[in-house]
Amino acid sequence: MMNNIILKASAGTGKTYRLSLEFIANLVRGVNYKNIVVMTFTKKATAEIKERIFDILYQIAFDKGNSTELEKNLKEIYKFDNLNKKELQNIYFEMIKNKEDIRISTIDRFTNQIFKNAIAPYFNIYNYEIFEKETDEFYSKVLIKIIENEEIFQKFKFIFDEKKEKKNIAVYIKIIEEILEMHPKFVLAKDFEIPKDKQVSYKFIDELDGIFEKIEEIADKKGKDVEEVLTEPFHSLYKKYSILIKDESKNENQKIKAKLELVAPKVDLFFEKKIWNGNYTKGAKNQDDREELEESSENLKEKLSEYIFVNKVLPLDKKLKTIAQIIFNIAQKIKISSKRFTYNDILVYTYEFIFNKELKFVENDKVTEEFLELIGGKIDTIMIDEFQDTSILQWKILKLMMNTSENIICVGDEKQSIYNWRGGEKELFEKLETMIQGNVQTLDKSYRSYKQIIENVNKIFNGYDSNWNYTDSGYREDEEYQRGYFGYFIQDTKEDKEKIYTKIIDMIKDGQIKNLGKSAIICRKNIHLKEIATALNEAKIPYTLESKATILEYKPIVPMYQLIKFFAFDNFKYLLEFVRSDLIGGLNSHVKYLLENKNEIMKYIAGNSKINSFEEFINIQKDDEIKEKLLEYKKINTLERNGLIFEEIINKIKDLKVLSINLNDKYQKENFSRKLVEKFEITKFYSTNSDLKNIFIFFNILKKYSNLYEFITFVEEEKENLKQVSSKDINAINLLTIHASKGLEFDTVFYYKRETNKGRADKDNFKSYLDFDEKFNIVKKFIVLFTDYNKKMFENELSEMRDNNSQKEMMEEINNDYVALTRAKKNLILLFDAEITKDKRYADSLVKRVIDVYEDENRYEIGEIVESEIPEETTDTSDVKVSNNLFETYFDDDKFVVKKSSITLEKEFKRKKGLAMHYYFEHISNNLENDKLIAKSALLSRYGNMLGKKIVEELIVRMEKFIEKNSYIYDEKYKVYTEFEIYDSEGKKRIIDRINIDEENKKIYIYDYKTGFEPETNEKYQEQINEYKDILSKKVSADYEIDVQLLEV
Q: pTM (2 decimals)?
């Protein structure tokens, strides 16, 4: 019996809490945690859900914290009679021990797992880069491939004819980009074909004849020339048209053909300009003529639109789809060759892989057992968070797994769907009830916001638009939550005043808002955030403008990271990018030189360390032609932008290459980092506080890794969590876009908007329309057209789809406003620089709405501002003020004295051996024969290169002897946990090497492996293991006896 739940959760109503309870409810019902899959859309949400599940499970299982309330909620919601606490404790321990088996991840990570395990190996790819968006350089490569192939270029040429910009390469790069962005739609509509029963109709000619006849009639009645009644753009056309009508030498068919030739080049006019001068048809006495012309004009547009659709749009659609498939194939080859993929690529390739009929991964609309093995095994329960942001492509994949699962829980909120621009389809969530026969439950009580916020948000959004569904939210009954402040301030953009956002500065300076760290300024557009940041800076108000960009995209980091990747992969492309960076300032001439002498440059950089300079390397060349080519560098030796010397750059890169090869100890790592900074004077070139801070963070990460490849693997996998940081104080106001603010909350929110109708012209080259049936199973329509034709679609099937898309965009604008307003906990201030249009309307629908609700065009305020106390300054090292002095400390000369470094190396080597030993024992449970094989293989794999195979094998012999001597520890009667994580009362993590549980005799044994001599005599070790005992005794039943032992290996 399937149990399908759809949770509709408004902002702040506790969806993460409820999702965590759903997870635990499944555990109570007996579902194995390994068979529960949770999908989220951000890494932040993944971490939050994991943390919440562990926290709630711990409290319930061990009767800690808020266990009474949590247990009550579990029993009320899920109708449980009693909870088996002992079983929940065991599950908690199992989950702690086997965290890698907990299947909570982002959907991007899920598709990447399939790509990594099955698709990439098919292409012989074992390491690859993933990034958000392609570069213009990539699109240029695709365009070059098209131009180089004459056959393909001929198929592409029609785009030149349509765009009429043959010399503007930027236009065609943008065209390639747009076509590749449509790839998911092409994949979904793979088997769709447009019906071939469309016939060209020339009925618009009759309508145009009628309009011209009517205008002639009006002109005759008014005693005017026809051209006076016609508007100026139609004068020339009418003259030729009237001559043609009177031409008796042509029969009717010939006249129709000639009329077509006249009208076809002028079709834009009929959609952009009025045919007749309205002065001659206004007033009551001209009503009949006016209405007849207006009706005929609408009919003309409708019939012209049908003619354009059949005669132009459909043939171009066919051509566009043909060239698009060719472009997809070219792009795929480049991506596979370069081993660089976007998240969108991975999703598309994963979808194609799963639905490949030859692979037989799908049977009866479910995934097979073979596929389940690729993703971690059986699925009993699947939970999907933020479902309103799911794309159709993602839905198609998720649905297969949902059909395999016994329990489905989908959580979302249509009102917070703000990702339509990247494929998010909120209709999926709106129609989900019928698609999975789900039981809809609604969470509509906010646990986040105070009364004034909730009541005013309800006022604004309830009845906002007939197409936008909204149900009032409730709020908490606590006395504290009955307070709060709401206000808005509107200023006409025509007024010669400072921008309305200066009110934020006034409120801070007047002391109305003191706790800046708990306050946020949210804007729809980045450009507005930057303006406000400038104003705050001038007013000396601290702020944090957090970037969504990762630290790897930070300008000072980019050149260093490119050079490190060159050292790690020997990929010449990274060297070229380094030379072209702002740091070096290389020109095309330098890139050309490097490319022409690639082999020799690579030999020099990787070659004999006794060769002291690039000039010496050139002088020893025996081939005169090679020597002559290499000497060409002297013509470009000065890099004028930064005053650097090209030859010196090459020498420095060679020196660093030598240092980069072996980073096995602290001395070598710091020496490489130090020389990289020193040789290229990075902290002089990039010297702001934010620059230095981000560089410092980058090197702090590098310090943790023993080779560059491990470092690159880590930062690429974790880059979404390695955000750029700005220079900030603890009490600094937060500046965010709406998308960045999603999922966050602040005591005080300022929402600033400045919408305009100017410059809203569609700049895309194409429009694509993909339409499905009610359950998103069958493609009803898929068409691609040039944007210029989009506005000419009038009262036909395509115009209906276009209007539906426009409606979606309008609703998403309301969603954006809703997300912004619901970030506020205590105080909400709306600030509008409002543009009033020619017809006396507001360009921003939210401005219009608040004026309609509150009936005041300038301002409205209610309640009193409430703030949390400002926290005391902390010593958080992520926010320390960074200066060059800090780098001098980081690269302290004392660390580079050889005498000291040899001691460091010896200690570091001993530490590594200790880690290796623990890593081996981590794999030893009590199935010794099998465990030792796995442990040996794992140890050689991780530490073989680091310590040397001989030393690792010696360690293995030593540890196997220990196991043989202490075989009682590894008896099969024990339930075993290795590398077991526990937390003390302050939340600090401790890791116990091994725990044996003797269930029959109610005894627990804690073991701690030590490599030192007689560890039991070391007081520090004894204190440590006794601390483990104290912590564990508080987390287990009192009838267990706990014993501890230090083990000398």
A: 0.71
Q: Alpha carbon of 137 to those of 184, 565, 572, 592, 853: distances in Å?
A: 22, 18, 16, 16, 50
Per-residue pLDDT tens digits for 339-378: 899 999 999 999 999 999 888 999 999 999 989 988 889 9
List of residues 6+ apart from 409 with CB closer than 8 A:
4, 5, 7, 19, 22, 381, 382, 383, 384
**Is 386 in a helix, a strand, or coil?**
coil
Tokens of 771: 């339409």
Q: What single string gives the DSSP state of each residue in 795-864? A: SSHHHHHHHHHHHHHHHHHHHHHHHHHTTEEEEEEEEEEEPB-TTS-BSSHHHHHHHHHH--SSEEEEE-
Calpha distance 300→51 (Å, rounded): 63
Helices 572-580 & 557-569, crossing angle to 10 degrees? 160
* Contact predicate 628/620, CB 8 Å: no
Spatial contact of 490 and 858, defined as CB atoms under 8 Å apart: yes
Q: Among the residues of 264-374, which ranges form H helices?
A: 267-272, 287-308, 314-338, 343-354, 369-374
Amino acid identity of residue 152, one-letter, is: I
Q: pLDDT tens, 768-792?
A: 999 999 999 999 999 999 998 888 8
Cβ atoms of 447 and 12 within 8 Å: the answer is yes
Please name the residue that has the structure tokens 């969806």. Answer: 15
353/119 Cα distance (integer angstroms): 7
Q: Are 1006 and 992 in contact (CB under 8 A)?
A: yes
Q: Which letter does DSSP use for residue 149 in this model?
A: -
Strands (E), 429-516: 439-443, 445-446, 474-475, 485-492
Instruction: Using DSSP bridges, classify how beta strands 859-863 and 485-492 pair: parallel, antiparallel or unpaired.
Output: antiparallel
